């Protein structure tokens, strides 16, 4: 199965400075995100979200706030006939040294355990942070970085200006 692993904040919905997340109650979709997700599904991919949420254990938001924002995002996507196959999040603080925080591979390994039908060689990772690109490199996967630099010495990594540019490569 072809899987598109999407980062959440800054890729699908807006991201904010850590301390501002405390006051966020509604997700705001990135320009072009909904159309891009629909197009990815139309190309035969399933979508899994993999997101670092260190702001939970660092005390900026509660687990309840995280789930509230995520539920609203999923409800809005469902209104556009966009189904998300699964979601993995890392709630650990940056200094906890967990195995799941990107660019470590724990969330993808868990996805493979839960969904062994995933074929990583036909899949890709996309995000707006260097850790998303590094995750793709760590797994020897195709990756797309939105505005995160230009050269990784790896022909599997492509740089995008915005999420809308993804369709050029699929």
From TrEMBL:
Signal peptide: none
Residue numbers annotated as active site: 7, 9
Highest rank taxon of the organism: Bacteria
SUPFAM superfamilies: HAD-like (SSF56784)
Localization, UniProt: Cytoplasm
Record keyword NAD present: no
Gene Ontology terms for molecular function: metal ion binding; phosphatase activity
EC code(s) of this entry: 3.1.3.-
GO biological process entries: carbohydrate metabolic process
Cofactor(s) essential for the protein: Mg(2+); Zn(2+)
GO cellular component annotations of the record: cytoplasm
Sequence positions that bind Zn(2+): 90, 92, 98, 100
Family matches, as InterPro entries: HAD-like_sf, HAD-SF_hydro_IIIA, HAD_sf, Heptose_bisP_phosphatase, Histidinol-phos, PNK3P
Keywords: Carbohydrate metabolism, Cytoplasm, Hydrolase, Magnesium, Metal-binding, Zinc
Binding-site residues for Mg(2+), renumbered to this chain: 7, 9, 128
Family: Belongs to the gmhB family.
Subunit structure: Monomer.
This protein's name: D,D-heptose 1,7-bisphosphate phosphatase
Source species of the chain: Evansella cellulosilytica (strain ATCC 21833 / DSM 2522 / FERM P-1141 / JCM 9156 / N-4)
């Amino acid at each position: 199965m072809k899987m598109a692993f999407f980062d959440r904040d800054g890729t699908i919905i807006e991201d904010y400075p850590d301390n501002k997340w405390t006051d966020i109650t509604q997700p705001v979709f990135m320009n072009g995100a909904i159309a891009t997700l629909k197009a990815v599904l139309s190309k035969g991919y399933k979508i899994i979200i993999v997101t670092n949420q260190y702001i939970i254990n660092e005390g900026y938001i509660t687990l309840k706030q995280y789930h509230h924002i995520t539920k609203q995002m999923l409800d809005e996507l469902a209104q556009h006939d966009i189904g998300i196959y699964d979601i993995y999040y890392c709630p650990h603080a940056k200094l906890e040294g967990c195995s799941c925080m990107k660019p470590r591979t724990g969330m993808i390994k868990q996805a493979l355990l839960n969904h062994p039908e995933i074929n990583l060689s036909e899949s890709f990772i996309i995000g707006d942070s260097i850790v998303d690109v590094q995750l793709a490199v760590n797994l020897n996967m195709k990756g797309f970085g939105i505005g995160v630099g230009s050269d990784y010495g790896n022909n599997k990594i492509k740089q995008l200006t915005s999420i809308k540019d993804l369709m050029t490569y699929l």
